[in-house]
Amino acid sequence: MLSAGQTHPRDRKTQMSNIREADTPIQDDEFKPSQDVIDQITQAIDDGDSAALDMLLEPLHAADVADLIEQLNPARRRTFLGLYSGEIDGEILSEIDESIREEVVDALPHEVLAEAVREMDSDDVVDLIEDLEEPEQQAVLAALDDSDRAAVEQSLNYPEHSAGRLMQSETVTAPEHWTVGDAIAFLRSEDWLPDQFYHVILVDPRMHPTGYVTLGKILSSRPQVPLREITEDSFRTISARQDEGDVAYAFNKYHLISAPVVDDSDRLVGVITIDDAMSVLDEEHEEDFLRMARVSDESHVSDGPFETARQRLPWLIINLFTASISALVISRFEATLSTLVILAALMPIVASTGGIAGTQSLAVAVRALATRELTSANARRVVFRELGAGLLNGIGLATILCLAGTFLLGSFQIGLVLGMAMIANQIVAAMGGVLVPLSLSRLGLDPALASGTFVTTMTDDMGFFAFLGLASWILM
Amino acid sequence: MLSAGQTHPRDRKTQMSNIREADTPIQDDEFKPSQDVIDQITQAIDDGDSAALDMLLEPLHAADVADLIEQLNPARRRTFLGLYSGEIDGEILSEIDESIREEVVDALPHEVLAEAVREMDSDDVVDLIEDLEEPEQQAVLAALDDSDRAAVEQSLNYPEHSAGRLMQSETVTAPEHWTVGDAIAFLRSEDWLPDQFYHVILVDPRMHPTGYVTLGKILSSRPQVPLREITEDSFRTISARQDEGDVAYAFNKYHLISAPVVDDSDRLVGVITIDDAMSVLDEEHEEDFLRMARVSDESHVSDGPFETARQRLPWLIINLFTASISALVISRFEATLSTLVILAALMPIVASTGGIAGTQSLAVAVRALATRELTSANARRVVFRELGAGLLNGIGLATILCLAGTFLLGSFQIGLVLGMAMIANQIVAAMGGVLVPLSLSRLGLDPALASGTFVTTMTDDMGFFAFLGLASWILM
């Protein structure tokens, strides 16, 4: 792990590839090997031709090799791992998706695994092993040097999804009294520096970070300049217990490039770099997006139909129950419906338009909670804003429905009932869309997870109830 | 603009703030000023006390000042700009949300605006002015030095949302034959260096980038080492015409920190840094999230009810029309419904569960398209996977419905009709969820934008049609 800065055992040279504009909407673009290369690789696997495989994979970026391994079907992946496992290095290993990580680690010969993890930074080792089973975890830990193992074990002591898991323990520090010249001499004399680092962190004698200096400033300043005179204003430390989502938020908001991580006594224990924060930001968004659509964020494009069905079924079953509530609401109005069957055809209009409005209001609220734009300070104002917007759109839609009722269905009264029910339901939708996620958030739950079910249940039930209730009263 | 590296006119010192764990779910956390400070600021604005305002805002990060300005109500914002406009610098200006940018720029005295834009990097100036009206654009351009104005105008010649708009034109380059010592001497002698830079880009005599060296490598290498011996394998150039979403994707996938941007003849024209790529990634996710919920990505938490209603109404009206199609489908079965009114109560179950399944399938497909995991190469396999999953879940739900029909409604036949309709609709949902976004993507349209409407229209219509059709056939 501390061999960072050395070149790789395999001399992986990514050609200078020019990222051209993607002109085909479905991207067979240059962010991955061409279909031609993929076909040749598949062929080499099927032929068991490991020499050809080495040659084809050598020019690829580790991220592309990892993507390729993920996208193979399980049988071919096994063959591939048999042929190629000797060539899998730390870079590829840290790019492999967690869904197949266990499988890949199991397939690696012991000495290959050992060499791969020794060249990884500690955060990548932590990321690799945190989801492995106990025996594989032990195998990886055993392959590390004592000091690296201690660093990894320290990270694993912090909660999952915390800054402590995300940080790398390799830090570049300097005493506060050093000059630029001291720092350069120190950096030249060390051979264990991390692969990527962007700041030299100033620490006091008790290892409390007190500021940091960018490498650009060090390079552009005279040797005699004291480091403390060229520190950055943006300096912030992050607690190792901080949630990784908050860390990503802070990086994005404050344009941080790297940030020192401190333990409970404010002592430096590691550093988080922006590339890891960017990955977390990406994952958190993905999770919210899928959760809003009631899909598990474990779902993966390489899953088979059984796995896919299993992941989605629970929310479908929940929907059977919530839809049954609507059925009960409707069944209360059987008398009305049997007198005027056209109401059965019209009632989904009110319910479904309410569902759309509820989802709109909900999506805005969930995002605003995530970006801290919706807080307890302005919650009241946002609720009133939604109420106003719901009322306005309700009136707009009601006008359309009154006209449609009069001129298309030949009944102003039916249009009026549709319109009044629509106003009521738009208000319920707007209120539900903001109050449900606010309440879940106050309870410490993820507002993206269950809000949709609550809100559409509300808009369905209110839609059917308001429409059929008003119809019973006005039309009967 | 080229004063980068200097300290700011106002000496904005962000205190060393320790990012503690957020323990309250609604975050009044340390990523923003405390409510107390916000209340004092509001008070100072209402009192017209600009001295107090200066004192309160001085310790805040520019991003927090910008957030504050955005969150003020319009009347108070005007008062604030009157009191504080003299203190608004380049950092604050580049953090201001585009929804109120015009208003802020208009309120700034000419010399304040001029000084603010002169200290900004060219990418921030481009970001600032690309959405301004012509007169404000001219005012900003006029404030720049000739060379900076040329750089900004060059960027503006590239399409919106392209790498050319995202890049900063300030680049740090070195001839290919330089050594580490040459580079350090050069960097020490220049005083125009960008605020943030992470690589020295090697260029040939015709300004074609041929590699780059991290600042960490320069600092840790002996002066006599040639730069070309310590270049990074990860080197990639980006075309200025590349879409910014693709750029963000490449940064995240390949862990880039900065990347040189080239024009059509492969000459270096600028550099994109990861913090800008991270912002783009964040915005693209936000856009997809809101679009899937049929909300304009222009919507903002500070919008009033009229603006909010106006943004959401179009999709609600579209839904009135699509829901009318369902009403037409249902009205074909009036005879059946009037004979067996309970069918009206049960029919939403099939339609709404289909809607959930369609949204699930759709969300997975939209994400997989965005992450390039769904391509023309594996589209067939994914479609079959969805078909299988839809069939499996259809059978599972049908089993539950048959049992519920038999034991709760006392009619196996009704359960059977519900179940058969459910299987049909789950298959339609699964197919629609993947084929609709694939088709939109092939047509060059954003699959997140309109897919939801197509898919839920399909599942609603199929749900009602299959259920009522089967009921007419089996139960009548």
Q: Tags for this entry?
A:
homodimer, 476 residues, mainly alpha, MgtE N-terminal fold, CBS-domain, Tetracycline Repressor, domain 2, 3 domains, three-stranded mixed β-sheet, 21 helices, 7 strands, globular, disordered N terminus, transmembrane (chains A, B), membrane (chains A, B), magnesium (chains A, B), magnesium ion transmembrane transporter activity (chains A, B), Mg_transptr_MgtE_intracell_dom (chains A, B)
Question: Helix and strand layout, with pairings?
Answer:
2 copies of one chain form a homodimer.
Chain A: E1 18-19, H1 35-47, H2 50-57, H3 62-71, H4 74-84, H5 90-95, H6 98-107, H7 110-118, H8 122-129, H9 134-143, H10 146-156, H11 163-166, E2 173-175, H12 180-189, E3 199-203, E4 209-214, H13 215-220, E5 237-239, H14 244-254, E6 258-262, E7 268-273, H15 274-292, H16 305-331, H17 334-339, H18 342-370, H19 379-407, H20 412-442, H21 447-474
Parallel strand pairs in A: 2-3, 5-6
Antiparallel strand pairs in A: 3-4, 6-7
Helix pairs in contact in A: 1-2, 7-9, 8-10, 14-15, 15-21, 16-21, 18-20, 18-21, 19-20, 20-21
Pfam families (chains A, B): CBS (PF00571), MgtE (PF01769), MgtE_N (PF03448)
GO molecular function (chains A, B): magnesium ion transmembrane transporter activity; metal ion binding
Keywords (chains A, B): CBS domain, Cell membrane, Magnesium, Membrane, Metal-binding, Transmembrane, Transmembrane helix, Transport
